[in-house]
Every structure is written in C-alpha cells, then in structure tokens.
C-alpha cells in the first residue's frame, strides 16, 4: 500500500498522486510540488489515503510544501505574463504567416517553461517560430497542437443546456461517444442537436447510455413482427420509461402503444 494525496493542476484536469511528505493536507489546499515539467502549484482534491501499489504510478514525487502568500503572488504574476505572452505569440504567428490558431498560453510556476496551445488543420513547421519566441522570452518554449475537444475544454463556454461545458467545469477525461448512443436514446440524429460547441458528439450522450442499455433488455427490437390483442403488427419504437412499445398494426396501419409484456414477438422483419 502507498500513502498518497490526489493533486489537480488545472480546473477539471486529471488527478495525480503525490507523496504527502508527512504534511497534513486537506482538499482545497494549494501546494507546491516537483513534477517532470518542473516546479508546479496544484490543489489538493482528495485527502491523504492508502492505495494499492497497483493503482499508483511509481516512483511517487513528494509534495514540497504548502503554498505561501508569496507563492500565491507568483501565481498571479504568471497569469498576467500569460496574457502578455498570448498577444506577443499571436503577432509572431502572423509575422511567420503560419496557418495555426493560438488557443492558450501556460507558464510553469517557476517560469522555466512556457507552453503555447494551438489548433491547426494539419502538421505545422513551427521551428522558426519557436526560435523567435525563445529569443523574446529567454526560456524554454513548447508548442503543443490540440484537438477541437481540447480547445473547448481549455476555453470553456455554455452548452445547449445553458450550463457551463462539462469538459471545462469538471470532466477530467474525454470518453468515447458514438452515434449509436443517440439512436438508443431515441434522440434526433440532427448533427446540430447532438453536437457540442466543439463540433463533436456531446459528451453527455455517454452519461445515461448504460441505463438505456440495461433497461432495453427484454424489449423487442425495432422492426420485429409481433402479435397484439388487436392483431399482428410491427414494432416501430420503444419507451423504456413507460415500459411500452409502439406497434404499427398490419390491417389498419394505425400505430398503437402497448405494454411490453402485452405483445408476443413472431420474428424480425427481413430486408
């Protein structure tokens, strides 16, 4: 077992495990840690606890200290420098005539490195841009290309539900989302209705998918031929909440709703 504390470096970012180094830490505490990227400030999100060794990536790095007032002032200064660096980098990108869109800038806590996040349609040769930026900032420069989902997570915004984007507010990892999930939930397949502001399928399609899959067990498939109290028909839809199926009757062509237990499946329609 390993004694660890969960640390997050960004809002809605991944949680990383660190050795608490005998410090008394509580969720919400700002701390200073040594990472592979250098010295960084993070926030405690899970209390100190023991985890099985198999769940911990070793070797564990130790928490250096709790953040001091001076550390907090340093963080504020870094945020101000990020705004300035963003403006400078945009001008440099235009000067080099590069087909890329600058999304964000991030200073490491100790200012030993600056990361510039950008989007582009393809690969970009930004070697000259990196040299130019290094001459201006006199520190390590990293340009990191990100996708449209990461762009939305970084910038934020409001979803069609009127709430802050999940990926920006709390969703740490993106999960696989498919059009089949929308079909199983009887949602409109209009791309404008099931896509987020990133242009990809909305992450929230995944949230209730397991419930739909579980509740659909025992329901006949769409297209199945069934026998009802009103004659034979064909399943045209199901409602897992009401436990009903919609049936288009063979004789009258009327569509009626029946409890799922009140219909008997004959066979699935071929072709």
Topology diagram in text:
Blueprint: E1 2-8, E2 15-18, E3 30-35, E4 38-51, E5 63-66, H1 69-95, E6 101-107, E7 113-119, H2 127-137, E8 140-145, H3 148-155, H4 166-169, H5 179-184, H6 191-194, H7 209-215, E9 224-228, E10 231-239, E11 244-249, E12 255-259, E13 264-268
Parallel strand pairs: 7-8
Antiparallel strand pairs: 1-2, 1-4, 3-4, 3-5, 6-7, 9-10, 9-13, 10-11, 11-12
Helix pairs in contact: 1-2
Provide structural commentary:
The protein is built from seven helices and 13 strands. It is elongated and about 80 Å long. The longest helix is centred in the first third of the chain and has 27 residues, at 69-95. It has a five-stranded antiparallel beta sheet with strand order 2-1-4-3-5, with no helix packed on it. Helix 1 (69-95) packs across helix 2. It has 271 residues and is an alpha+beta fold.
């Amino acid at each position: 077992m390993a004694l660890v504390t969960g640390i997050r470096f960004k809002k809605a970012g991944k949680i990383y495990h660190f050795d608490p180094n005998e410090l008394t830490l509580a969720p919400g505490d700002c701390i200073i840690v040594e990472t592979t990227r250098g010295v960084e400030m993070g926030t405690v999100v899970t209390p100190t606890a023991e985890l099985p060794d198999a769940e911990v990536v070793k070797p564990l790095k130790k928490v250096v200290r709790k953040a001091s007032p001076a550390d907090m002032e340093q963080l504020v200064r870094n945020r101000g420098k990020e705004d300035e660096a963003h403006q400078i980098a945009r001008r440099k990108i235009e000067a080099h005539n590069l087909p890329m869109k600058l999304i964000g800038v991030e200073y490491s806590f100790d200012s030993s490195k600056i990361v510039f996040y950008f989007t582009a349609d393809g690969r970009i040769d930004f070697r000259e841009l990196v040299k130019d930026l290094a001459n201006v900032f006199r520190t390590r420069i990293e340009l990191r290309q990100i996708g449209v989902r990461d762009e939305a997570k970084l910038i934020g915004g409001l979803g069609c539900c009127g709430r802050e984007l999940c990926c920006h507010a709390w969703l740490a990892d993106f999960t696989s989302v498919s059009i089949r999930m929308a079909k199983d939930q009887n949602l409109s397949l209009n791309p404008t209705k099931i896509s987020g502001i990133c242009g990809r399928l909305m992450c929230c399609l995944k949230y209730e998918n397991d419930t739909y899959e579980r509740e659909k067990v025992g329901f006949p498939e769409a297209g199945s031929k069934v026998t009802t109290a009103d004659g034979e028909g064909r399943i045209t839809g199901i409602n897992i909440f009401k436990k009903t199926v919609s049936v288009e009757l063979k004789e009258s062509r009327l569509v009626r709703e029946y409890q799922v237990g009140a219909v008997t499946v004959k066979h699935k329609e071929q072709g």
